[in-house]
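Project outcomes to date are best conveyed with an example. Our students and postdoctoral researchers have been running inverse folding experiments weekly, and each run begins with a structure described purely in tokens. The record below, which covers 360 residues, was selected by the lab manager from last quarter's runs and is presented without edits.
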């Protein structure tokens, strides 16, 4: 960040040592890119098919041999699944903006984060967001960042717990973008932050606030995480361990007894054995055991999405009530809560150290 720039126009200038004929250059900044999972552009069959094809063709998500998986995906799964997935998305779609809730929320998170970082670093930082699947694409956002003068970029996958189908594939896509650039920006990736005290405090705050508004205190809080095949754990992916530790740290932050909170996993896909217990089955068993009032939180998601707004709020809720439960309370993801944004800022301050210094 040492080259002096004489300001010409907003965002542009001339290098102090360059001749007057030198074309304007973008002022040097550090970029921060939030990376979320992804979203279809619409809920119709072809939009869903394009999105699902990109998602399910990612070998971080489904790591079967391509010669086995692709014929099955293209001829059977992508013939049927766009209809059911489109129906699920339509039930939660933000019709006012004509976009998925995940896109709406990620934009709001980015805007709040940009304001907080601007207060700390001024115009030296540029903030944007991308999606691993769908739009805005990772490659397009990183190229835009570079064009705006970001020679250094902090790439922030919005996954508190590290997982190869989430954190790793987001980073993979960022590195693929670098492979296409003649002049690569320097890049840092943000590690898992599930142990960060401010993240845990924000999670605990969301539970405490939800419990205060309920007429009857839940006898069980279920922390539901997106599942992965058990094989991933055996092959060295730390995701399952990170989830278990998140639940324990959340329990300690809340001051709950061990029997007040459980860990479960949702969104099973395919014939393999997955880590468990499965949330949809676990909540039904809790109802049969006499737990009539439960709450569910989803600590693995930074933003509400189809897995929370449709799967938890509809399928998992129905499973609990059908088994005899009476009150099912879903506690929303942290989304753009101020305490969540504060936690993200604290994580980023650590990763920006050495590149930028705060104004405070």
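After processing, the design step wrote out the following sequence:
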């Amino acid at each position: 960040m040492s080259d002096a720039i004489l300001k010409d126009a907003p965002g542009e200038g001339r290098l102090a040592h360059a001749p007057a004929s030198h074309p304007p250059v973008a002022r040097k900044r550090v970029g921060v890119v939030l990376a979320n999972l992804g979203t279809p552009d619409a809920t119709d069959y072809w939009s869903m098919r394009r999105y699902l094809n990109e998602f399910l063709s990612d070998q971080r998500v489904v790591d079967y041999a391509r010669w086995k998986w692709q014929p099955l995906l293209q001829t059977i799964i992508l013939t049927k699944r766009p209809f059911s997935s489109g129906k699920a998305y339509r039930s939660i779609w933000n019709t006012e903006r004509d976009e998925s809730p995940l896109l709406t929320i990620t934009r709001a998170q980015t805007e709040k984060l940009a304001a907080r970082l601007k207060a700390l670093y001024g115009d030296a930082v540029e903030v944007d967001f991308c999606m691993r699947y769908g739009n805005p694409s990772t490659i397009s956002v990183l190229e835009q960042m570079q064009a705006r003068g970001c020679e250094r970029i902090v790439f922030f996958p919005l996954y508190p717990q590290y997982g190869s189908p989430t954190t790793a594939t987001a980073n993979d896509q960022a590195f693929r973008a670098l492979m296409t650039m003649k002049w690569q920006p320097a890049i840092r990736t943000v590690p898992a932050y599930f142990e960060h005290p401010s993240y845990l405090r924000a999670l605990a705050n969301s539970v405490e606030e939800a419990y205060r508004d309920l007429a009857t205190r839940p006898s069980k809080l279920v922390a539901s995480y997106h599942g992965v095949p058990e094989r991933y754990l055996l092959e060295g992916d730390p995701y399952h361990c990170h989830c278990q530790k998140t639940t324990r740290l959340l329990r300690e932050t809340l001051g709950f007894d061990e029997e007040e909170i459980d860990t479960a996993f949702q969104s099973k896909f395919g014939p393999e054995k997955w880590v468990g217990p499965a949330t949809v089955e676990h909540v039904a068993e809790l109802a049969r055991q006499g737990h009539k009032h439960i709450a569910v939180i989803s600590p693995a998601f930074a933003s509400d999405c189809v897995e929370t707004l449709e799967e938890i709020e509809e399928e998992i809720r129905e499973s609990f009530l059908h088994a005899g439960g009476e009150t099912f309370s879903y506690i929303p993801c942290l989304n753009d809560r101020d305490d969540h944004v504060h936690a993200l800022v604290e994580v980023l301050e650590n990763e920006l150290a050495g590149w930028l210094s705060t104004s405070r």
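The two ends are 19 Å apart (CA to CA). Residues 41-90 form one domain. The training component of this project remains on track.
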